[in-house]
Design a protein that fits this description.
Oligomer: single chain
Helix content: 40-55%
Distance between the termini: 97 Å
Radius of gyration: 42 Å
């Protein structure tokens, strides 16, 4: 009869029982920090039981298998931490068994028990974590297990830390980009994907300078070069504002802060990127508001004073016109002067209206009535142009300021007439919609002109922007202020095959 432990080469049961191999607090063994699951694969039942008892007394959970096939058929094999594999398991070769175990339990470490160095080396080449030569010392086995388990625990903790860190990085609202010393991107989080328009797969491997316009691109390349040569830091540990470039070539302002990560054999740099477009726009709006407030105060006073002067001038021209009514050439000159004065007066009024606070006096309003009144106001502008206005859709009603909305539609219709070199054909479409969760009306005014340039679409509602040779460029800015004061929205676009289209959304009721 084969002695217990013969297969694994461990001492006899009598030797174990005599206390030659003690457990628990024996200084030759180490207590594992937390229970781990061990699988013993050995065809010798008594040998398996001996090893199982040794391990269970050292607080391991132990499963056993008599054959390689049985081992591979174990349920929940992926939960196994260590497989102790005896060379005498003969139903499968180690070339089949070790890869099979690794495919089913990628985290499990294999300890191969062999009676020859050659067999142990072959097992190590196939991926075994360690080997033991027969006859083995249980103390050595336990020490190996503790070492393997500690390594697995540390690896698991490191993986958990990485997962937690990756979760933080992936959920960060700021772009987080890691580059090497040459500027090549090694990581690119979802926020960076949204900012720059690249997927992580597209960005990784690119040089970060490709995401900067000149001169920032050249400066960054030069900075990295100087840093590698001299070690002098200029932006590491500090933050600064720069301009970044999206995949489509558009640029946007960012705040960039860089930190250095020193690894064993190289350095990495992590950039925290925050899109500050909204901040810059808010700063610009604040500056513009302050500037316009100053202009408004000055122009309000100027408009008041100029009105009196223009009235006196107009009265003098009218008296002069009566005196020289028999001189046609002089009369024409007076008419030209009067028109220039009217234009000057209108300029003052535009600025005064823009600077004045918008007050909405809502009342039940039929939008089509206001549009038709505005069209009637432009009879002089339409004279000789064979202009036509058509309306489609149900006549919408809402609570609105009739005077303010009439000014809005008059501005839009006047621009549409002026933009059309052919016979103006202006179409107004009415409809119903929802806006910020409330019932609203939609009005689209489209012309048959050449449409808006890309620049005009971006700036049409900006103060002092105009494509006309005359005027202040405040008309559409005033329109936007009035619509916004109603709690609505105004947008400009091109709508082929027509020309420009201005869309207005107004809430049905004013809160």
């Amino acid at each position: 009869m084969v002695a217990a432990g013969a297969a694994l080469g461990i001492g006899t049961i009598a030797e174990l029982a005599s206390g030659r191999f003690a457990f628990g607090n024996n200084s030759e063994t180490m207590h594992t920090p937390q229970p781990r699951r061990i699988l013993i694969v050995d065809g010798d039942t008594k040998a398996r039981d001996v090893v199982r008892k040794i391990l269970e007394q050292d607080h391991y959970f132990v499963a056993t298998a008599a054959t390689a096939t049985e081992a591979l058929e174990k349920t929940r094999l992926e939960k196994i931490s260590v497989v102790i594999l005896d060379q005498d398991v003969s139903d499968l070769s180690i070339e089949q068994l070790i890869p099979g175990i690794q495919s089913l339990a990628p985290e499990a470490a294999v300890i191969y028990v062999s009676d020859s160095v050659d067999g142990a080396v072959a097992a190590m080449r196939l991926g075994a974590a360690n080997y033991l030569l027969k006859p083995i010392n249980p103390g050595v086995l336990l020490a190996d297990l503790v070492s393997i388990v500690e390594h697995q625990r540390a690896k698991s903790e490191l993986r958990d830390q990485y997962v937690r860190m990756q979760a933080v990085v992936n959920s960060a609202v700021e772009g987080i980009i890691t580059i090497d010393e040459t500027g090549v991107i090694e990581s690119f989080n979802p926020a960076a994907e949204n900012m720059f328009g690249y997927t992580a797969d597209e960005a990784i491997g690119k040089n970060i300078s490709e995401m900067m316009p000149d001169p920032y691109s050249s400066e960054h390349h030069l900075y990295l070069s100087n840093f590698r040569r001299t070690g002098i830091r200029k932006i590491i540990g500090t933050g600064r504002e720069v301009v970044a470039q999206r995949q489509d070539g558009t640029t946007f302002p960012i705040h960039l802060s860089v930190s250095e990560v020193q690894l064993e054999d190289r350095r990495l740099f992590t950039g925290m990127v925050r899109d500050i477009t909204a901040i810059k726009q808010a700063e610009e709006r604040l500056l513009q508001s302050e500037r316009l407030a100053g202009i408004g105060q000055a122009m309000a006073a100027l408009a008041h004073e100029s009105r009196n002067a223009l009235q006196r001038s107009q009265a003098g021209l009218e008296m002069l016109e009566r005196r020289i009514k028999n001189q046609p050439e002089a009369t024409k000159l007076i008419k030209r002067i009067q028109r220039a004065q009217d234009d000057l007066h209108q300029l003052y009024e535009d600025v005064r209206e823009y600077a004045a606070p918008i007050r909405v006096n809502p009342e039940h309003t039929a939008i089509s009535d206001i549009v038709r009144h505005a069209w009637h106001d432009l009879a002089l502008a339409r004279e000789g142009r064979n202009a036509a206005l058509t309306e489609t859709g149900d006549d919408p009603y809402c609570q609105g300021d009739k005077f303010g909305l009439r000014l809005v539609f008059r501005n839009i219709l006047e621009n549409a007439i002026a933009a059309t070199t052919e016979e103006p054909r202006i179409k107004v479409e009415y409809g119903e919609t929802d806006f910020v969760g409330q019932p609203a009306v939609r009005i689209c005014i489209c012309d048959n002109g050449p449409g808006l340039t890309a620049d005009a679409q971006q700036q049409i509602f900006h103060e002092f922007y105009t494509t006309k040779t005359r005027g202040t460029g405040l008309g559409m800015a005033i329109c936007k202020r009035i619509i916004v004061a109603h709690g609505g929205l105004i947008e400009a676009e091109n709508r082929p095959p027509s020309g420009a289209c201005i869309t207005i959304i107004l809430p049905r009721s004013q809160s």
